[in-house]
Amino acid sequence: MAKKAKTVFVCQECGNESPRWMGQCICGAWNSMVEEKVIDTPVNDTRRRASEGAKGARPSKLKEVGSSDYRRIDTGISELNRILGGGLVPGSLTLISGEPGIGKSTLIIQAAANLAKSLGTVLYVSGEESEEQIKMRADRVCGELSDQLYILAETNMENIVTICENLQPKFLIIDSIQTMYTQTLDSVPGSVSQVRDIGNQLMKLGKTKNIPIFIVAHVTKNGELAGPKIVEHLVDCVLNFTGERDHDLRILRAYKNRFGTTSEIGAFQMEEGGLAEIKNLSGTFLEGTDMRAEGSVVTAVYEGTRPVLFELQALTAPANVGFARRTAVGVDHQRLNMILAVLEKKLGMTMINQDVYVNVVGGMRPDSTSIDLGVALAVYSSMRGIAPSKRTLAIGEVGLTGELRSIQNAEKIVIEAARMGYEQIILPKKNADKLKTRIPEGSCRIISAANLYDAIDAFKGEA
C-alpha cells in the first residue's frame, strides 16, 4: 500500500521543519517557510541508503555540499596508492579480485597493518580462513602488529554490521564477499541474491559511516569476476590482481575507478616476506635480456603516469603439416594477424607456410597499439635471421598500408629509453619531428620512420 504524504513547512535558509507556517523561523529569517510534502520512511528500512539522521528524502544544493573533508588516506603502499588515484577515499568501496594464491590476501593484510598504525582501528573480517591462519600470514609479512588491528572470523552480515557499530573501525576488509550471507534470505552464500544483498549492505555501511571498505571477490576459471555484475556497479573501484605462478611479478590494474584513472598499473614482486613494490618496472622486464638476438626487439607502452619498456620475442619456423600456426602470448591475436598480413603484402614476405610465435617476456599484457612496430620487427628479424645493429627501441602503430602512425606520450618513453642507455630509437616520423628539438644531443639517436621500409632499414643499420 502506498504511503500518504504529509505536509510540512521548511525554512529555505536553515532547513528547519515546522508543522505550520511561521512568519519568522527560529534561525531569524523572515518569510522563508515553504510548503513541502514528505513521506515518513521507517528507520529500519535496510534497502534504503541515506545520510545518518535523514528522515525523509530531500535534495541539497550541489554547490553547498562540502567536499573538502574527502582527503586521501595513505595505505603505506605507494603502488596501491597509485592505482587508487592517490590513496583511499573515506566511504569508498573497493573490490579486488584475482586467481587463488596470486597474493590478494597478502596485499590486503599488509595495507591493513599499515593503516592500523597510521589511521586507527582496522577490522579484518574473514569468511575463508581462521584467525590463527591470518595471524600466521601477518607475522610473516607484516612484522610488528598494531593493537588497533582486529580480526573477525564471521560470515553473518548482521553480526558484522553490529560489531562495526560497536567497534567503529576506520577501515574494513571483507574476505570474501562470496562467503558472506544475510539471514533475511534463505539462499546459500555466494548465490546471486546473497551477493547482491551483501553488496547493498556494505555500500550502506560504508557511505553512512564514512568507512573505506575493501571487498575481496573470487574469479571464475576464465579469470572473470564471479558473482552478479551488480557488485561492480555498486563499488567505486574495481582492482584486478594478475600474475603467473612461475613468475614472481604481480600486476595490479584498475578496471573501474570513480576517484582516479583506470590506466595506471601497480607492480609487485612476491617474496618470502610478502609483496615488495617494484619501482623500476622496465628494469625488471629487461633484466638478463640479450639486446641483439634474432627475433628479439625492445618496445614500450605508457601506463598511467610512467613508461614501461619490455622485450618482444618472435619465432618463425616452417609449418610441418596443415595450416600454419599463429600463437600470441601477451599480444592481441587479431592484431598479430593484421601485422603479418601487412608484412606479407608490403614487404613480400611469404608467411603462408611459416608458423609464427610471438611472446611478451615477463608476463606483461599490453593493450596499446604502440607495440605494433616492435611485433613487426621481431617477426622480420626471426624470418630473415637479422639481429639489430645497436641497442634499439621500436615504437609505433602500423597501418594497413604499411605506414607508421604517431603514438601518445612518445617523449616520455624516449626519455626513459635514453636513461636506460639505448643507442637508437625508431619511431613514427610525426613523433620524431617533434622530439628531435626536445631530446638533448648525444643521449641517443632518434630515427624517423614514415613506413615499415624505413624502420627495417634502421633496424639493420642501413638508415
Mean pLDDT: 85
Integer count of domains:
3
Rounded Rg: 28 Å
The appropriate CATH architecture of the largest domain is 3-Layer(aba) Sandwich
What structural class do you assign from the helix and strand content?
alpha/beta
- Within the largest sheet, what's the order of strands? 6-5-7-8-4-9-10-11-12
Strand content: 25-35%
Number of helices: 12
Measured as a percent range, the helix fraction is 25-40%
Give the low-confidence spans.
none
Instruction: Write the CATH fold name of the largest domain.
Output: Rossmann fold
The termini sit apart by 81 Å
CATH level-four homologous superfamily name of the largest domain:
P-loop containing nucleotide triphosphate hydrolases
CATH class of the largest domain: Alpha Beta
The count of DSSP E runs of length 2 or more, i.e. the number of strands, is: 21
Main β-sheet description: 9 strands, mixed
Task: Characterise the protein shown here.
- This protein has 463 residues and is an alpha/beta fold.
- The protein folds into 3 domains: 1-45, no CATH class; 78-278, P-loop containing nucleotide triphosphate hydrolases (Rossmann fold); 284-460, Ribosomal Protein S5, domain 2 (2-Layer Sandwich), CATH 3.30.230.10.
- The chain is built from 12 helices and 21 strands.
- The strands form 5 sheets. It has a 9-stranded mixed beta sheet, sandwiched between helices.
- A hairpin with a 2-residue loop joins strand 13 and strand 14 (306-318).
- Helix 2 crosses helix 3.
- The radius of gyration is 28 Å and the shape is elongated.
- The mean pLDDT is 85.
